[in-house]
Each structure stands twice: as structure tokens, then as C-alpha cells.
Amino acid sequence: MNNDMKKTLDKIKMEKSTIKGNGANYEVALQGLEQKLNTSMDTGKGISEIKLEEWKKVWKKEQDEEKVNSAEVVKQQIRAKKTVIQVIREKEELVR
Predict the structure, then answer these.
(1) Would you call 96 helix, strand, or coil by DSSP?
(2) What are the per-10-residue average pLDDT scores of the chain (96 residues)?
(3) Is 70 helix (H, G, I), strand (E, B) or coil?
(4) Which superkingdom heads the taxonomic lineage of this protein's source (predicted)?
(5) CB 81 within 8 A of CB 8
(6) pTM (two decimals)
(7) In whole angstroms, how large is the CA radius of gyration of the chain?
């Protein structure tokens, strides 16, 4: 495997790890909100259903935006891989 391809693959692995981390962060944030909600309800300071639905909509919107961003990163990675493969093939043809 040539050095350029290895660098590209390492970059892709790092970006994939970042994307997974962001998803985990959102899950932790949601769990924190659920715990606050449960604690508030247990102490009689419960929030209204309307406010809860607003929070859910905001969270859902953030999740959808993250998915779009993740899809764009994957598309860029695929384009980069194709470019690297094309360069490798061209170099191989020159060597022949």
C-alpha cells in the first residue's frame, strides 16, 4: 500500500471515529435530559408536555443535521478513495 493511500485511510478512520463520538455525545445528552426530567417529576417540579415535545424536536433536528453532515463526510471519503485508486492505477500504467 503506498504512502498516500495509507494517509487517506488513516484520515478516514479518524473521521469515522469522530462521527461515532458525536453520536455517543448526543445519546449521553439525551440521557441527561431524561434524568433531569425524571428527577423534576419526582420532586413535583415536572415540566409540561409541550416543553418536553419542544426539547424532543430540537434534539431530533440536531440528530438529522448530524446524519446529513455524516453522509457528506462519507461522500467526500469515497471521492478521496476513488482519486487515490485512480492515481495508483495511472502510476501502475506508467511503470508498465
Answers:
(1) coil
(2) 73 72 70 72 62 83 79 84 88 81
(3) helix
(4) Eukaryota
(5) yes
(6) 0.36
(7) 22
